[in-house]
Amino acid sequence: MPESIQDRVLRVIATTKRVPLETVKPESSFEALGIDSLDRLNILFDLESEFDIEIDDGDAKQVISIPQMVDGVSLLVRAKEAGLPAPHFGQELPASASGVAELSATDKQKADA
Amino acid sequence: MGAPLRVVVTGVGVISSLGLRAEGFWQSLLACRPGIGPLQNTVHRVETAPLRFENVAEVTGYDAEAIFDPKELSFMDRFAQFAVLPACEAVAQSGIEWTPALRDRAAVVTGSCMGGRGAEENGYWELFHHHRTRVHPLTIPLGMSNAGASHISMRWGLQGPAYTVSTACASSGHAIGQAFQLVRSGAAPAAIAGGSEAPLFLGGLKAWEAMRVISRDTCRPFSADRSGLIVGEGGAMLVLEPLDAALARGARPLAEIVGFGSTADAGHITQPTSSGPARAMKQALADGGLAPEQIGYINAHGTATEANDRIETLAIRAVFGPHADRLATSSSKSMHGHTLGAAGALEAVATILALKQGVLPPTANYSRPDPVCDLDVIPNAARPVQVEAALSNSFAFGGLNAVLAFKAWP
Question: Would you state the pLDDT for residue A1?
Fold first, then answer.
């Protein structure tokens, strides 16, 4: 099975922060992982490279959790695959673009619940 | 060495997005007219990596070839030109005559954050992109951060202590503070001090962009909708002399420089604390023999990042207590942008001219109060007030802080 977007985000966080992968869980808080503002900047930069996307400065400022990172990255990846301009975090893509979508982290959590 | 000498500023010079001389700089500050707009000069190779932002504070209407002779120019990166030009203006205004005795020991202390990295970029582009095997032989003398100090010392044959301080955005605050100490102690009979920066080259702009601290529109210090800094270029220089020497030759001081405070946060490489800046302000007051109540104006570091303006407000409140509500604070970066290593010098000049002219420069582009920046920030219009003394704050990434204290010369 290919690595999911969430797994890739967790891997990037672990690599950038130089901590063992098993310590980085979707529900881990930035605080618990010791991620400060500069770490966050580094992680977003490495996510941009990993997924070949560009994260807007305004969106970057609002990211305070791993699920937000996963959702934001998923959104940008879906938009890119659908050939759409990069949306802002939290925006909806047109229905035609969502066919290729992988479930977002929050959707997954809802499904799990 | 004898007792500490009183030190005065007898000349200033500025080149900035607000004009090529100090007069244009000051008139723009008074008129609350920002020099911020879309990049006009060519940033080489920008097509290879387009920028995510458009606006900068750029020196325009500047023709280096009309000012410097070709031979001289080939040895000077733009940042070094921005050191020499305002030094020429400051020396001319001071009327100082560089006698052999002065030349023998006069100091030159400059600040720059990035130095001549624009010249280095040109060399490295050849190496890494065009796969050339060599770079231009002047890459080192053009790129070295002390080039500004060296060219100033050579221009007038000044042979005393000459060096460059690089403390990111506090560089020229530290440089002026160091020069002040040299003149006050008698180690140097006069000094040229200030800073310069020319960061509008692709690698430099990309590096700032990656920090995610650049505003997409303009610089709005202390405003609730502030969105980051605007990178600027320019330079400013001061002539410092002992008071007695200046008066003896008939010079008219612009202001007296009385105190310097310098501290390290010893905290985080980019996140500021309020205690480091507060201690630097307290030290500058103590060094200058000033009571907090004597300060009527603070030219803030005021970068318009979320963190700086909030932390700086806390620091000012911590130092001044209730007097924080009676003094005025503004950020002239709202007009000349953040000139990085030159910022401390540009803002020292703004502070000196405010004391001399009896008008306080405003914070431009201010739109909405922010409860965490609840100081009197002189929003959007200069204020005619003669204050007795003023501070100029400079706080650098890396937690290195420099605060200068000036008094009006009656």
Answer: 74
Cβ atoms of B362 and B32 within 8 Å: the answer is yes
Please give, rounded to a whole number of angstroms, the shortest distance from the CA of A109 to a CA of chain B. 30
Nearest to B246 by CA among B3, B4, B11: B11
Query: Between chains, do A57 and B228 touch, taking CB under 8 Å as contact?
Result: yes
- Domains of chain A, first to last: 5-112 (1.10.1200.10)
- Dist CA B401 CA B262 (whole Å): 6
CB B284 within 8 A of CB B405: yes
List, in order, residues 6 or more apart from B136 with CB less than 8 Å away: B122, B123, B126, B142
Q: Which of B32, B113, B169, B373 is catalytic?
A: B169
Q: Minimal CA–CA distance to B109: which of B7, B16, B188, B1?
A: B188
Q: Which of A37, A44, A45 sits opposite B271 (nearest CB)?
A: A37
- Domains in chain B, please, with CATH? 7-248 (3.40.47.10), 260-408 (3.40.47.10)
Give the closest residue to A55 by CA, choosing from A34, A41, A38, A36. Answer: A41
Start-to-end C-alpha separation, chain A: 23
pTM for the full predicted model: 0.93
How many angstroms separate the CA atoms of B377 and B320, rounded? Answer: 15
Interchain pair B52, A37: CB under 8 A: no
Give Dmax (Cα) for chain A.
39
pLDDT at A96: 64
Nearest residue on chain B to A41, alpha-carbon basis: B211
Tokens of B232: 């600027």
- Residue A106 — pLDDT band, cuts 50, 70, 90? low
Clarify whether B373 is annotated catalytic. no
How far does A80 lie from chain B, in Å, by closest CA? Answer: 18
Concerning whether B169 is annotated as a catalytic residue, the answer is yes
Contacts A46 to B, Cβ<8 Å: none
Who's near A70: CB < 8 A, 6+ residues apart? A5, A6, A9, A26, A104, A105
Residues of chain B with pLDDT under 70: 1
Contact yes or no for A61 and B212 at CB 8 A:
yes
Cα B87 to its chain centre, rounded Å, is 13
